[in-house]
Amino acid sequence: MKFLKTCFEFYLNSSIHVALAVYALMRITELYFNLPYQDKLNYFIFFSTITGYNFVKYAGVARLHHRSLTNNLKVIQIFSLFAFIAMLYYAYALPLKLMLYFLPFGVLTLLYAVPFLSGFEKNLRQVSHLKNVVIAFVWAGTTVIIPLIFAEKDLNTSAFLYMLQRFVIVLALILPFDIRDLNFDTISLQTIPQRIGVEKTKKLGLTLLIFSLILEYLIPIGESFKTPYMLFVFVTIIFLMRSKTKQNKYYSSFWVEAIPIFWWLSVLIFQKIQ
Questions:
Q1: What does the pLDDT look like over 175-195, one tens digit per residue?
Q2: Going by C-beta distance under 8 Å and a sequence separation of 6 or more, which residues neighbour residue 241?
Q3: Mean pLDDT, range 144-160, rounded to an integer
Q4: How far is Cα 253 from Cα 14, in angstroms, rounded to an integer?
Q5: What is the rounded CA–CA span in Å between residue 16 and residue 243?
Q6: How far apart are CA 217 and CA 223, in angstroms?
Q7: Cα–chain-centroid distance for residue 270?
Q8: Mean pLDDT across the chain, nearest whole number?
Q9: Rounded to an integer, what distance in angstroms lies between the CA atom of residue 18 and that of residue 11?
Q10: How confident is the model at residue 116, as a pLDDT?
Q11: Is 109 exposed, middle or buried (0-12, 13-18, 19+ CB in 10 A)?
């Protein structure tokens, strides 16, 4: 049992879980727009997510405590190195033009962790009101625009509506994390719960999800996608409304993060039965 718990903790702490969530969103985009399975791109984004998230989470810790790193963190560092090598391998297999489109999202991820403002003391995460916007924009661009460009599809109105919907979805999914971290985030971050309180944050999330439902019916897609999306919104609302500052350890980091995976599996199931 202890071994299984250790493996589960590594699965979460090494960002494999969040990378699977991003992978799921990529697969949903491919299904929505009837794109072929783009294995090299999907694996590149998967390993990029692991590399990027672990850099954001652990770069500062490693720099300050490099001589006293715990064994777990050392293992994550080694794992991140292999993920980085895999990312480079799949990047090499992709067209250079696509990498140029991906570059802005990569730079934003880098600047999210590396201080470059106010005399190199602040990064994008520490800029008031910007944290959630950066995360949602990177996720939306990476999981919608990049696959469409790779498949040489036109970036038409449907594509941008879908990117807007994905942006709104990610904003809503971030809110349970912000509520969890309310007592730990510095006041200068000015997160949404810090500014408007927990209850109004939940109402904002509900509004975002309702707006995303409206967008779902504006995007010309097959009926087989609408029921899974309604299930996704319903589950997200439940987790959002039950969010609190004192959460179970895995409430956000596992369950909320798993909602995109649930959505992807729901789409696959409904396509099988229809």
A1: 999 999 888 777 777 788 988
A2: 202, 206
A3: 92
A4: 12
A5: 23
A6: 10
A7: 24
A8: 88
A9: 9
A10: 62
A11: buried
Which residue, 265, 266, 172, 161, is CA-closest to 216?
A: 161
Domains and CATH numbers, the chain: 2-273 (1.10.600)
Q: Which 3-state string (H, E, C) describes the chain?
A: CHHHHHHHHHHHHCCHHHHHHHHHHHHHHHHHCCCCCCHHHHHHHHHHHHHHHHHHHHHHHHHHCCCCCCHHHHHHHHHHHHHHHHHHHHHHCCCHHHHHHHHHHHHHHHHHHCCCECCCCECHHHCCCCHHHHHHHHHHHHHHHHHHHHCCCCCCHHHHHHHHHHHHHHHHHHHHHHHHCCCCCCHHHCCHHHHHCHHHHHHHHHHHHHHHHHHHHHCCCCHHHHHHHHHHHHHHHHHHHCCCCCCCCCHHHHHHCCHHHHHHHHHHHHHHHC
Residue 144 CB-density burial (10 A; 0-12 exposed, 13-18 middle, 19+ buried): buried
Name the amino acid, one letter, at 169: I
CA dist., res. 103 & res. 165, Å (int) = 22
Tokens linked to 68: 């006293």
Amino acid at 240: L
Query: According to the model, what pLDDT value does residue 122 have?
Result: 67
Q: Residue 67 above 70 pLDDT?
A: no
State residue 122 phi and psi, 5-degree precision.
-125, 140
* 142: pLDDT strictly greater than 50: yes
Please compute, for residue 241, the number of CA atoms within 13 A of its CA located in the half-sphere on the CB side: 10
Six token digits for residue 79: 């794992």
Of the candidate ranges 3-17, 105-119, 209-223, the one whose mean pLDDT is the lowest: 105-119
| Phi, psi of 117, rounded to the nearest 5 degrees | -110, 160
Tokens of 44: 């590149």
- Summarize pLDDT for 207-228 with one digit per residue, the tens: 999 999 999 988 887 778 889 9
